[in-house]
Design brief:
This protein has three helices and three strands. It has 78 residues and is α+β, with helices and mostly antiparallel strands. It is globular.
């Protein structure tokens, strides 16, 4: 398991290698989807009692850090 960010890890044997929170089977993507749907941190913590607020903050920081990279979007050929 490789720590790639504070509290965020990648393990090819867990969740198909997606970034996860502290070795749990909870992906950063899952937390970000809840947040983007309007869930509050408290609501997420009730659904995932093994998490703490700092885990959710780490997901947001990780997602923000990803946006520091350049991306090229290719148009689909019709």
């Amino acid at each position: 398991m490789e720590q790639i960010f504070d509290r965020i890890y990648i393990d090819s044997d867990i969740c198909n290698g997606k970034p996860i929170i502290r070795g749990k089977r909870i992906t950063v993507q899952t937390i970000m989807e809840y947040l983007s749907a309007g869930e509050t941190v408290d609501e997420i913590l009730k659904q995932y009692p093994s998490l703490v607020a700092e885990d959710i903050t780490a997901c947001m920081r990780y997602a923000t850090e990803l946006m520091n990279h350049s991306f090229i979007i290719k148009q689909a050929v019709a």
